[in-house]
Batch of 3 targets.
Target 1
Amino acid sequence: IRCRCQIGSMLLLALSPSALTLSPAPAASGVRVSEGAASSIDSGARIWDAGLALSMLLSSPALAGKRVLELGSGTGVGGLSAAAAGAQVVCSDADKECVLLLEENIAANSLSGRCRVAKLVWGCEDDEECVLGLEGAFDLICGSDVLYAPNAFDDLLSTLVTFSTPGETEVMLTYPTRYTESIFLEEAAAHFETLETFEVEGAGVENVYCTRLRRRDAEEFSP
């Protein structure tokens, strides 16, 4: 698929030292996140429980210096938390309104020195080339509530493979339990090994799980 890419603007960094914390709470990162107009149940313009869970998990200085790509960022609550913890982050979304919302939230937190925005349609070669031009490779790819639509799984998996390095890149996905996540994880097994799956506790959420994957070594791939 070929399509036009869009990269968000960059501003100066003014990161508060208090943003770097080990406390596992969604507000621990100190980020302020505004929601947009959510026109549907699958809108990324609002903060869902899976996003709060991802924010909590990414609010750790252990991410300092890591290159992180967030897929389907929506409000950016997860990616902004990683940036506040010291990571170099690219927040991405296919929706133009969410891209604008992401730019506003990044600027509101003075995190533009660590966090950039890209329009990214999964499976779109032009968009993927633009994002690859920002960081080249990523240590961690993350996403919240991106496993609800099986018709998008082929493109999602293709995008994960494009941005991951064999034997190195990890993937962190948070999601409420449905029947769909098992479908995706079975498809992903050819390229990614499952490190762990656990229920996320805290952040005021219930029935939200996290699965961590790692890209398989190149020699493990089946022809």
Target 2
Amino acid sequence: RPLRAPAARAPAAPAPPPGGAMAQSSRVYFGDLPADTDEATASAIFGAYGTIKYIKMLEGKGACIIEFQSHEEAKWIVENLNGNIAQGLSTPVRVEFARPFGGGKGDAAGVGGWTPMPGPGYPGACGGGAARWSPYPMKGCGGGKGKGAGSISVLKKGLQYAGVLPGGKWNNEQNALFVSGLPADTTNADLYDIFCPFGAIPSQGAYAMSNPDGTCKGIGFINYLEAISATTAMNTLNGTVMPDGTSLRVQPKGPSKKTKGEGK
């Protein structure tokens, strides 16, 4: 039976437990995760058990390392969740304190995961501004020179999961367009480039349906934040003649078909 998250309670004053730095750590290793677990999923599952400061997925290992707000939270999770089934999972997970920083190869904070960027309230804060999150290692308080060491997919998923992108969790039934007659090499980026000048499109709001081999099925969907944008795009682009002489069709998306068990 999935282990429920603990009820909110006042944190106890941490007493130095035996076992050295690892015993007092707030960094927890989670293993035996499903192979398709990504950062957003892990954050949603384990965030129910404590306040997450950063998370690092260990690619190809079905595991992740999470730093929680306090040692007390981490200690409760290690003692109660190890060998149990977390809410949102169907199999038990392995949970233990993570190695100290530098304690293992590839176990440094910030590589491929979320690292807290110093700000007010963080030790070593540099200047003003609120504390933010970064998907690449912090290297002092420089002005952003060089490139990040993280993955752009981690950045996108993190921003989407955090709900900081305009549009939030958009509804595919509102301000949506159905596009047909697309060439086989059409991608999501192509649709975005064509339709975004007409108005704001939320994250993942331009989607080209693809075949198993990666080619486009000839259809796609566009979601706008405002109805006027959808109307303008449809009136402008519907009937556009394609290079092969066929016409592009852009029309309002119809209601999704209900599957069995969803009602009449």
Target 3
Amino acid sequence: MMASASSFASRHGLQSGIKGGDGAKNQVALAYALFICLALAVLHFVADGEFSAIMTMAVMSQSLAMLLLLLQSLTSGSASGISARALGLEALALCCRLSSTLWLDGYLPADASGDWVFQATDICTLLLVLGLLAHVLVVQRSTYQEEEDSMPVLPIVLGSVVAAVVLHADLNSRPLFDALWMAGLFLGVLAVIPQFWLVSKTGGRIEALTSHFIFMMAVSRLLSGIFMWHV
């Protein structure tokens, strides 16, 4: 009789786990579907198919990446596998970029998506990053892998700032904000490195949604790189 009860509980727990897994998959599918619909709407109705809209697609891809990582935190109830240091670098990169794009147009897409969609997407992404940081460092602190998430990020910040001061362009005609935008670009490219560090320190194990996050961040950087190459 006890064996039967144990068997029933095991089957019930397995079924609950399957249902939970299906729910998470549905949420991910919904996030991708929403992203595709919004991206197509912006590309067609706002940007009129202009090539410069690829920059807006890049920041939208980054926003989706952060949303997927937040879904991982919420559905798993754990901060395991999420690098707070990577998120901190992303937040700093976004702040540097917004310091320019919120009031200067030197580094905005030339199409209509640069009027407000580009900036609004970056603001939403920053809010997602700050929300994730709150979950990792406060709400789910007990599950945060602080010892493994130990990569020094100060050299990345200082290197990005120095490189930006030396290599920045002049599209804003304001050296400080040109340098800040360039620092944000460098920081954004390098921000994923602490995430890879954490993965390597935890034996190479990676959550499904973390892999989705890394993939969409790669898509974002690829789109930005394509735009920079052509201009």
